[in-house]
Amino acid sequence: MTFCSDVQVEPLAGTAKQESVYVLFEWPTAWSRDVLDGRTFGPGLTEKLKAKLKGVAGLQLIRRPGRAGHERGTGHFRCFVVWAREGLVQDYVLNGPEDILDLDLEHPTGTCLPLVLVCTHAKRDACCAIKGRPLAASLACEFEETVWETSHTKGHRFAPSVLLMPWGYSFGRLNVEAGRELVGKALHGEYFYPANRGSGLTTPQGQVAELAVARQLLDASETLHYGDLTVGAAGTAAGDSSTVVVRHRDGRAWDVELEEKEASGVVSSCGDEPKTSRFYAARRVRILRAASQDAARG
């Protein structure tokens, strides 16, 4: 059988899940295709959860990798509220999913706690289970407290698909070796470029622009941390191109020119017919401003 993630005809950059606040709730029992379709938590509670989360936060169900994560008894459930823009995680222990309704999702607080979420959501797409579960299990052997299985992360055609908290970055097509490096760097807040799909805090154009600048800096042997780069709004340029300004916390700024391209033969989900998709690519990166003197001394 050919899986959708075996058809690798489009770049990863610019495909990240867009969200700034997340609720990660431990739920070891079965996940329905859409965790808020009423079949996971029941229709009554689901409607209340939708009202609580709408326009505020995204919900990811999580569990420990392997059989132990599925067999865990009921009683107390880990829950993390993530504010990706601030790079913060608040850790809770809840009695059940109804306690999500009482969480404060408006005031960022907590610590910078790295969490690696590997999509294993089989009912959403077979790729997530077949490719995600082995990766999660392998990484959990070395990073037990950091790695979790999770529900749909957007982009199962890039399986294994990973979300990195607390910064809200998406990754795809990770093997175990790259996964180990990603987690190892994340524990120190260090930026990992390979397999990086982008930051969920910005648009596809912004994701591509940031990654283009990050690659230049890393190729120049700079140390880069999550949160060092921020992305401005996309502007228009001549023809079919657009420009995005990317800024470093040290005062440097770059103008990234993007162009829109087509990829044919994209298979969005297992069993779907191939289609043509459009994506952005960086055409040129031009520095606008050097580092400030204070930052350079720093």
UniProtKB/TrEMBL annotation:
InterPro entries: Aim32/Apd1-like, Aim32/Apd1-like_bac, Thioredoxin-like_sf
Listed name of the protein: Sucrase ferredoxin
Organism: Corynebacterium hiratae
Organism ancestry: Bacteria, Bacillati, Actinomycetota, Actinomycetes, Mycobacteriales
